[in-house]
Predict the structure.
Amino acid sequence: MAAAAAKPAAPRPKVQLVWEPKELHRRDWMLVASWSLFALSSLVGTLFYVLRYLFPNVTYEPPLQFKAGLPTEFAPGRVDERFKASFGTWVVRNELGLYALSTVCTHLGCTPNWLEGEQKFKCPCHGSGFRKTGINFEGPAPRPLERYRIGLADDGQVMIDKSAKFQGEKGEWANPESFLYV
Amino acid sequence: MAEENPQSPSSGGPPKPPAPTPAATPAAATPAAAAPAAATAAKPAAKKDDARIAPPQKTYVPRPGLMDQIKDSQIWRSVFRHGYPNTVRNRSLAVLSNVFLHLHPVNVRTSGLRLSFTWCMGGLTFFLFLVEVITGVLLMFYYRPTGEYAYRDIIAMAEHVPMGIMREIHRWSAHAMVITVWLHMFRVFMTGSYKPPREFNWNIGVILLVLTLLLSFTGYLLPWDQLAIWAITVGSNMARATPIAGYEGPLSSLISIDDVNLVHSGDDMRFALLGGRFVGEATLLRFYVLHCIFIPLVATILMAVHFWRIRKDGGISGPL
């Protein structure tokens, strides 16, 4: 005890209480700048390619253009539902010719059903109703079903192009491409 | 204006003689209140208008910068409750008040930072795990674990999905992770870091090693090619030999009623693992869920315990 007391108190380890930035010399600056550039470009490049990865180059959706068979296959006054599931299109024949209706309800985008007995398209979601022409007459739908571009291919088949839409409320059904006289 | 300023040189009758220069120079060097007096003294023959034209002398107060304003905002203060980490206290708070960093020791021994001592293998393993999680989640956007699509999606991800090396990053990181886990374990063994008080953490680590191997094993099946199917067929045959629970394992014949074995190929360990008697679509879905959800979840929890226990057991062990 006495010996311990006689010993001079050991100096306390110096604790660095405040961090002070060192002066940045030219070489150090180059080093910091190079690594920063490397890290930044890696980060930006990675983020860019991860974002790019989310946009596939190939999709497995049906093509926007398709051939629907010969015009003689469509009976007058009938709504053809063969292309509803595969291409989202009704092909309707009236006394003058053919037109292609979109199966997307103009209210909120559900798929209506064709009711043969009532001669109308009825949307199961909110009850919108459309005539065979596509014109809305009941429920919340604000405008008629859209029509797609329709024409004849070189081999005489009906060609439907979903990339072009014609809206009846805008008078676009007068466009010759929206109706096929056959 | 000029009349209101008693110090203006034009307020008095005759112009004052110029103040002695040695007295004016130190006054000009000090900012604030002494400055106007020095200015008047230096320009005795100033015109009447000069007092109006000359800008008022002000002390320079630096405006807070954008970063200061952000750091003083309530939003910033609600997230970071400590000041700039340039004092020992604030640097400790930066670690302690952060949910992720607090798993880590506040103070690390210098020897613990030496690469020749730790090889940073635990840190590299964790980094590779993060790489696996990120690339794995991205792969899940394109991969469907069904017999019809699994192999097709694997090919598609290499052939025409952008960033076609995503799966390769995932695969090679997985290989690297197995290596770094083993090297980490080797280092911990060689430095005696498994000894008390760290024996519990060693056991957590052993479980994490097994989980790493199981992640590799379950991921092996997902490409759904011939290599994958037969590798899992061979690998899962080991489960047949599980004691009691495997139908070819020791003691399983004890679980029987008369001569009817209750542990058979239709209800043993391997059957539970594969979801059937052989590797099929049920196995693919089962391994997919194990690989993407179950094992990573357990591993994440155990990793949090593992890191936290390093801190609780006294930080990274010192040199022998």
Notes: Chain A has a mean pLDDT of 90. The first strand of chain A starts at residue 65 and ends at 67.
